[in-house]
Amino acid sequence: MTLRARYTGLIDRYRDRLPVHDDTRIICLGEGNTPLVRLNNIPRLLGREVDMYIKYEGLNPTGSFKDRGMTMAVTKAVEEGSQAIICASTGNTSASAAAYAARAGIKAFVLIPEGKIAMGKLAQAMIHGSTVIQIQGNFDDGMELVKQVAETAPVTIVNSINPYRLQGQKTAAFEILEELGGAPDYHCLPVGNAGNISAHWMGYKEYHEHGVVNDLPVMVGYQASGAAPFLRGEMVDNPETVATAIRIGHPQSWDKAWAVQKESSGWFDEFSDQEILAAQKMLTEKEGIFCEPASAISVAGAMRDIQSGKIPAGAKVVCTLTGHGLKDPDTAIGQCTAGVQTVQASLGAVEDAIMSAIGGS
Ligand SMILES: *Cc1c(COP(=O)(O)O)cnc(C)c1O
Questions:
Q1: I want to staple 187 with a disulfide (CB 3.0 to 4.6 A). Which of 23, 36, 217, 337 is the partner?
Q2: Closest CA relative to residue 299, chosen from 54, 103, 40
């Protein structure tokens, strides 16, 4: 028996594929290396022969894939002498920025849309000691303000317009290729700013160009109907959806994502809030996997496209679950219409509750 070397984080693992030097101080929290879980019950319910996997990005240190990009962005910010980072965020970027800034010993400023951020994400940004600035506007307004402020203030932007973010995020594709021993046929993701779909494509193409793998996946991006600029073919001014992580009307990686769609022969599609929540519930109840609403859209989409035959029988499909379900406890509890019953602290009362649940199922 041999002991494996300790996993410290994705920069260390993919050092030769990332823009770091031997003496770069790496700011990491053990991000990446997330599980690729094969779904058992959902494919059976669909009645189709497909190989469906979820990439459980909610198991990153702060609970979303943003950590992959943030370890790179903060490492480079520190290397370049920056004392502070700034971002606009629907929640997960701010949680991640706050944690990595704390780790690095620098300041983080985060702009969030008032009242539209999930409780777990807000708690993270606050507890890590970032300066949380709530604006009376949406993500897109915040993004514009961040770009303007960064022109004069001594702060480094760590939104996905920071090129190091996408460099870090491309490593998710490397992990999938290594684990599957080749490319999946289809890769399904939620699309907000479209940085992540662009980063994945970059990763897939990099291993392809270096001859590590012979094939490339078809990239499929899903948006919430109320925030679906890629479906409308233009920017959307007042985006609305329960999936707050993708409540974005002016995607920052607009051109990149269209290039991904064309190069990979992929497509975009949209889902209502109701469909998104139904997919979230299905994953929790049928597979034991809890992701936040925005993440569930990748599975909602894969299920629909498998059922319609757009994704053919026999295909190998990976869905990225971008963030953990615990990020947004309010939406989760709101979905559980049965609620919680309260009984007397007596054996009889507990037995009755169990028996009626068994009888009722
Ligand atoms: C950031 C985020 C997205 C959207 O990713 P983009 O790169 O902006 O397209 C989706 N889901 C979750 C949970 C996120 O945090």
A1: 217
A2: 54
The DSSP letter of residue 26 is P
pLDDT reported for residue 324: 98
Q: What spatial distance separates the first Cα and last Cα of the chain, rounded to whole Å? A: 47
Kindly give the distance from the C-alpha atom of residue 353 to the centroid of ligand 1, in angstroms, as a whole number: 40
- Ligand 1 pocket check: which of 62, 193, 197, 291 to mutate, most ligand atoms within 8 Å of Cβ? 193
Give the SS3 label for residue 243: coil
For 292, which DSSP code?
-
Q: Which segments of the chain have a pLDDT < 50? A: none
Q: Report the residue count for the chain.
A: 361
Tokens of 8: 């410290």
Element (H, E) at 54: strand 51-56
Q: 51-56 and 36-38 as β-strands: parallel, antiparallel, unpaired?
A: antiparallel
Structure token digits, residue 35: 């599980």
| pLDDT score at 361 | 52
d(CA 46, CA 29): 38
Q: Contact at 8 Å (CB) between 300 and 272?
A: no
Ligand 1 binding residues, C-beta < 6 A: 64, 66, 92, 160, 190-196, 245-246, 292, 294-295, 322-323
Give the pTM: 0.96
- Beta-bridge mates of residue 224: 271
> What is the residue type of 96?
S
Q: Which residues contact 88 (CB under 8 A, 6 or more apart)?
A: 110, 111, 112, 139, 142, 143, 145, 146, 159
What are the chain's domains? Answer: 10-63+165-334 (3.40.50.1100), 66-162 (3.40.50.1100)
